[in-house]
Amino acid sequence: MNKDLVIIGGGPAGLAAAVKARMKGVKDILVIERGGRLGGILNQCIHDGFGLELFKKAYTGPEFAQKYIDKIEGMKIKCMLNSTVLDLRPDKTLTVVSPKGLLEIKAKAIILTTGCREKTREMIKIPGSRPAGVYTAGCAQNLINLLGYMPGRKVVILGSGDVGLIMARRLTLEGAKVLAVVEIMSYSNGLKRNIVQCLQDYEIPLYLSHTVVEIKGNKRVESVVIAKVDDRLQPVKGTEKEFQCDTLLLSDGLIPENELAEKAGVEIDSITSGPAVNEFNETSVQGIYSAGNSLQVHDLVDWACLEAENAGLHAADFLLSGIQGKRNFKTNADSGVRQVVPQYYSGVNDLTLSLRVAVPAKNKNIVVKDGSRMVKKIFCRELNPAEMIRITLTKEEVKNSKGLKVSLSD
Amino acid sequence: MNAFDVAVVGAGVVGCSVARELAKFKLNVVVLEKEADVAEGASGANSGVIHSGFKEPRLSLKALYCVEGNKKFSQIARELEVPYKVVGTYTVGISEADRKKLGELKEAGEAAGAKDLEIIEEKELKKREPHVQGRLALYAPEGGITDPHKYVIALAENAAMNGVKFCFNTEVTGIEKKDGGYQIKTSCGVFQSKFVVNCAGLHADEIANMVGFRKYKVNPCRGEYFVLDKKASQLINGMIYPMPPEKTGGIGVHLTPSIDSNILIGPSAEYIDCKQDLGTTARGMHELFEEAVKLVPELRQKYIIHEYSGLRSKLIKPGSRNIEDFVIEENPAGFIHLFGIESPGLTAAPVLASKVRELIGRHAKLQKNPHFNPKRKKMIRFSELSKEEKARLIKQNPDYGVIVCRCEEVSKKEIIDALNNPLGVRTLKGIRIRTRAGMGRCQGSFCMPKIMKLVGKLDFTLKGGESRICHCSLR
């Protein structure tokens, strides 16, 4: 089978990319989704707060997804559900399986919107026994919201990422007792609104600079021991505190899923764990684009969708007019900045940078420099690693570029 | 009445090997296992190595049985369709000072019957193992790897199809001599048997105590492991061992390629008091990484996707620190004990089983079971098949086209097959070790809810007993 544009992943980013590409005139589009319905992880996010940036209204996850699903249906964009891409090769051929069979597809362009996964207990290397009752927060969210199964009654949550905060509230509303949210850093990794609405409103204690040092219980979790950590994030002896509980949830960060991108030989940024792209969202393999949480973990779905629209737009340009992106210059995260996307740019187009700071900061300037030339300086009262920062540079600002450096300064 | 000729206590590799061996004869055999599945003890938590035997003390049972077991293994693997790959072993010396010791190991190995051992120099080592750092190495071509869970499952399934009865969640609580045999009280009722074979591993001394045999004490010795992402599989080709550590004994923290292209790092060695303590520790995990990175400097923390620990059953000679050899003893008559079956127990198990059969055969002439079928079919693994075979299978059964575990590419059909396994095991862990669903980099975060949905039972457990995954339904 031949296709002009194949979009892998029917979550919000994939759908936004498809809609944009169709609006730009691409007729032959296929969205491949492994789940039984479109919308991806939004389907299990039944809380609200989605869409404030794009629609100026707070929707639930399924509502937000439905806005795009309606467009997809209205535009009659073809979607394959229950379909898993097993292989993707650099020549943009892919192998897909579904209950209907195995299919080989040759695409002219591909957009990867494969989302992300959660860090596991094993990645964090939490010591202790291996009983039932240790789940990632997203897994527990799936159990409760999609299956209607309650994972436990007395819960400790490690990590103050947004999914963990949302789950603290969700479990409380279903009658569980959330004993503590434990965060190894001295600041929370979640959005401020979630700290207020999910923890403070329910009087759930947040232990900053603490971590879980042991899981106890043979068959099911019986207790969890937490301890204070020092400046090197090492547990301090004598500060242990034991919580009798039956469940430990983990919300310690997300990792972009790029197994297919790697199979296709796409260059991966070791800091974001996503493909290194240019301002067209194009990867190092010509005609393969990346957007959404598989490119970089976003704080808001709105930004993931905007990013995916950009990928859809440029995939359309590539397919219809042969316009290709360039990787002439690099962007670099310098002191105080953890990551910058895109990693490459042409120097001839407008350029939107997404970045995250490394640690929380107050009253600092975000400084964008091109060589020694100051391109932009933005004063920020408060900077938080949990929140993504977006800076748009005009093509005039990056003219005669040598490479951009983004840093924080006083 | 649950009356049997032979009751085997413990469904580890030894118990299941004994069961399969005895199934070749006209014997009514039962296996009593306290856990919900086979291989829940040391048999499922080791490096999965079929050893060549050259590192064991000269002329010890460990050495002799290991060499013999190694020779038997290819045939068993063929009969039972168990994965087996000969990859070779490198014992790596970091400096010239290790040359003498490696020479001694080579001599001892040759005396034990290991073939084609050679000492290779740095340049040759780099050629064969580009990521391994060392001055020289002892190479043994015979060392192989298997999947220990799949091996024990295959032994048990083959025994079961030849008439052996398996009772899981059945803990032996007391044994009495009765009617010329033994009456065994368990958490699931009473069993009567003419012979009892004590293959309880770590708990073998507790079982022996029940019939007043108190000669041996089993000491749990914990070994922790890391499992690496398949993305790191290129780091090694063969098994990479350090020089045998003189202080702690044993074989040291090593790197082993697994059948499924993960790398295992471990085990550490730590004597502990509690036989239930299967936890991992911060110190143990730190040590594993520090030791392994000496051998393979390119190792990175981010490659680690799983940790676990196992408990070795160590017998220590009273009044010394020396480790006892394997022990097979009959006491009282008709009650056969196996003690201290630690490494290389996985390799030696078929030989141990035939020794048990010989001991039983001394009491009564065993008659061959004319219907014994040594062959057992493995489950279909979708991810291992060619595109053409995959397409054909999906046509036959659309459930093959539904991928439940994305990381290990496990289909819905395989999950259903695993749920209907011939041993009747119904746990999440049982599905994991049979299909690999949940053993990849997301560790089941994505596929566990899908499996829960497929199972459709709220009381589904991780590993039997009180290990329920969910608490209650909201609907």
Q: How would you describe this structure to a colleague?
A:
Chain A is α/β, with parallel strands linked by helices and 410 residues long. Chain A folds into three domains: 1-117 and 254-324, FAD/NAD(P)-binding domain, CATH 3.50.50; 120-252, FAD/NAD(P)-binding domain; 326-410. Helix content of chain A is 21%, strand content 34%. Chain A is built from eight helices and 28 strands. Chain A has helices at 12-23, 61-74, 121-124, 137-147, 162-173, 192-199, 259-263, 301-321, and strands spanning 2-8, 29-32, 48-50, 59-60, 78-80, 84-88, 93-98, 101-112, 116-118, 134-136, 149-150, 154-158, 177-182, 206-207, 210-216, 223-228, 241-244, 247-250, 254-256, 288-290, 329-333, 337-341, 344-345, 351-357, 361-370, 373-383, 389-393, 404-409. In chain A, the strands form seven sheets. In chain A, strands 1, 2, 5, 6, 7, 8 and 20 form a seven-stranded mixed β-sheet that branches. Chain A has a five-stranded parallel β-sheet with strand order 10-18-12-13-14. In chain A, helix 1 runs parallel beside helix 2, helix 1 packs parallel to helix 8 (301-321) and helix 5 (162-173) packs parallel to helix 6. The longest helix of chain A is centred in the last third of the chain and has 21 residues, at 301-321. The N and C termini of chain A lie far apart (56 Å). In chain A, 52% of the residues are buried. With 475 residues, chain B is α+β, with helices and mostly antiparallel strands. Chain B has three domains: 1-82 and 143-216 and 324-378, FAD/NAD(P)-binding domain (3-Layer(bba) Sandwich), CATH 3.50.50.60; 83-142 and 219-311, D-Amino Acid Oxidase, Chain A, domain 2, CATH 3.30.9; 383-455, no CATH class. Chain B has twelve helices and 23 strands. In chain B, strands 1, 2, 9, 10, 11, 12, 19 and 20 form an eight-stranded mixed β-sheet that branches. In chain B, a hairpin with a 2-residue loop joins strand 10 and strand 11. The longest helix of chain B is centred in the N-terminal third of the chain and has 20 residues, at 61-80. The model of chain B has no long low-confidence stretch (mean pLDDT 94). Strand 11 (149-150) of chain A pairs antiparallel with strand 23 (472-473) of chain B, so a sheet runs across the interface.
